[in-house]
Amino acid sequence: MRIVGHTIRHIIGRAGFGGVLIVMASVFCLPTHAYAQVDRILDAAEREIERRAQREIRDVIRNAGKDDETGRDRDTPIYDTGAGPAPTPHGGPEAPKPVWLTQCDGLRPTRIVYGQLGDYIAQTGMSAQRNTGFVRQREVDFIQGCILPDLRSGEVLYLEYDKQALAAKGDFKTQCVKVNDAGYGAVNDRESADDYPADDSYLRPGHLKLACGHSEGISDCVGGTDADRGQAAERDFRNRGVTPLSFHMMRTHQAATPAPGERLYCHYFNAQSGLSLFGYEYYRERF
């Protein structure tokens, strides 16, 4: 049987699959109906081998221009986009977050919080009261130098700085650029202050102290009215010697903004020193 198997493989190699029938006829003396079955099996095998060869050829053609180790196209630059929250609406590769536009001042905030301005319920006994305040808060920190984690439209960035140290630095204003459209120029030069986070006092003091009985997981609370909570917050700022800053990640009506939105990179910039307190990217949605 080993001699027969060797003979079959030799004939297949020299004469193709059709040579198998010769071996069957000369060695095994198979009946006619068996030849038909073998013939069908060989036809199916040949078709499968042809399909497999075609797939492998297509893969070779598809991968011919790619790097052997990374699998990326050799002509496509490799971008480090950070933790960008959404894909580019333009298609194609993402542009890198332009953190090189930001030179850090070095003054660190004493607190950084992300959250939202929204409604919450304060429960006192059987009574429930709806209030508006800084909710869904989470403490964050810089991820690189003075660069913050990414944000999305509707979120609020809140920071606290030492009052005297911040005052000594002079004036800061928000500047923004479109990450995937560098030719657009500075957003703050072309668009309304309602279209990007220009206001650095978005939250009122009363938003920062929540009414007692809330369920936001924050131990600090103040009873009374919104005015009472605002006065309590201002006293707290004076006692701790801090200046609060807060920025709302705006949505926009700008026709130049592609739907559903785009990436903006912003920093809080001092024109006199050329330095920034912090920078961040946010995904600006279009109304």
Topology:
Layout: H1 2-15, H2 18-28, H3 32-63, E1 111-124, E2 127-139, E3 151-152, E4 156-162, H4 163-167, E5 173-178, H5 187-190, H6 205-208, H7 226-240, E6 242-248, E7 261-270, E8 275-285
Parallel strand pairs: 3-8
Antiparallel strand pairs: 1-2, 1-4, 4-6, 5-7, 7-8
Helix pairs in contact: 1-2
Provide an overview of this structure.
The protein is built from 7 helices and 8 strands. It has 287 residues and is an alpha+beta fold. It has a 4-stranded antiparallel beta sheet. A hairpin with a 4-residue loop joins strand 7 and strand 8 (275-285). Helix 1 (2-15) packs antiparallel against helix 2. The longest helix has 32 residues, at 32-63. The model is unreliable at 1-15, 17-27 and 65-91 (pLDDT under 50).
Radius of gyration: 34 Å
Q: State the strand order across the main sheet.
A: 2-1-4-6
Shape annotation: elongated
Q: Point out poorly predicted stretches.
A: 1-15, 17-27, 65-91
Order of helices and strands: HHHEEEEHEHHHEEE
Strand fraction: 15-25%
Helix content: 25-40%
Q: Helix tally?
A: 7
Largest sheet: 4 strands, antiparallel
Instruction: Give the class from helix and strand content and strand pairing.
Output: alpha+beta
Features:
single chain; 287 residues; alpha+beta; four-stranded antiparallel sheet; four-stranded mixed sheet
Short description:
The protein has 287 residues and is an alpha+beta fold. Helix content is 30%, strand content 24%.
